[in-house]
Each structure stands twice: as C-alpha cells, then as structure tokens.
Design goal:
- The chain is mostly helical.
- It is built from 6 helices and no strands.
- It is elongated and about 60 Å long.
- The chain starts with a helix and ends with a helix.
Length: about 160
C-alpha cells in the first residue's frame, strides 16, 4: 500500500473504483430482494403459506442470477449476508487504470462505458459473467434458504414463548 500511495496517486488511489462500487450495490440488492419475493410467491403452491426448501433454493438462485445479470458491469461486494461475485468490469478497470502497461485509461465512469462499448461492444461489459453466474446462483440460493430457515426458527420460538 505504501508503494501504491507513493506511485499511483496518493490517498485517492486507495479508493479508485469506489463510484462504480456504490452505483452497483443498491441496484443489486434491490433487484435481489424484489426478484426473490416475486419468484418465491410464484413457487408457492396454491393453499400453502410457504414454498418447499427446494423451491426456496430455486427462488434464491433465480434472484441472484437476475440481479447479477442486470447490474454486472458495476457490481462489487455489499455487506453480508448477501455476498457478490467478483468480476465486475468497471470497478476492476478503474482499479488498474493507472497501473503501467495495463492499457485502460478512462477519465470517468461514462468514458469507460463508452470506450468499452465502442471497442468491445455491449458484450465487453459482461466479460466473465458465466463463471460468476455459476458462483452467484448457488451462493444466493443457500443465503436465502438460510435466511428463511433462521427467520422461521425465531418466529416459532417467539410463538412458543407467548
């Protein structure tokens, strides 16, 4: 970090890529919650209060994949309990923006988006998404199922105390 501080822009070099990070977290989490609740309702059989554990796993996998796909170019790591995959294009390119020999020199987020789309097409914004989807789907499936099971446990515990 000392070398980075001295040679790559001082204090602000430590925060390179923060704007795409912040811009990607809120939409990801919002989409994840919205999609999970919608898919969870869809997977709940008529007359049942909750879907089965397998259906909750499927809803979690779908919600993670949808949120990941929609926000992938900007994604970073939000706070737990919802881990995100690595591989976000803009954040990584901004982090290496001033490293010598890397070839990425962007003036702003919009400049980066424009250059990537111009040189690589829209697909350039989604480089590495397949391995990340393979990671995020099971991760979100297990996170949502764990959340549901823990919440249900505490609800039953509270009801038994009353």
């Amino acid at each position: 970090m000392v070398i980075m501080y001295k040679t790559e822009g001082g204090f602000f070099a430590l925060y390179r890529g923060i704007l795409p990070t912040v811009a990607g977290v809120a939409p990801y989490v919002g989409l994840n919650f919205m999609t999970y609740e919608s898919v969870r309702k869809y997977f709940t059989a008529k007359g049942e209060k909750d879907p089965s554990a397998v259906r909750k796993l499927a809803a979690g996998a779908v919600s993670g994949a949808v949120a990941q796909t929609c926000t992938y170019p900007l994604l970073v790591h939000p706070p737990p309990p919802f881990p995100l995959p690595e591989g976000d294009v803009l954040r990584r390119r901004f982090q290496i923006n001033t490293m010598s020999g890397m070839g990425y020199q962007y003036k702003s987020i919009w400049d980066a988006i424009t250059v990537i789309i111009t040189q690589e097409g829209v697909r350039g914004l989604y480089k590495g998404i397949v391995p990340n989807l393979l990671k995020v789907a099971p991760s979100m499936a297990s996170s949502w199922l764990s959340f549901e099971m823990t919440r249900d446990y505490f609800v039953r515990l509270k009801e038994s105390d009353v």
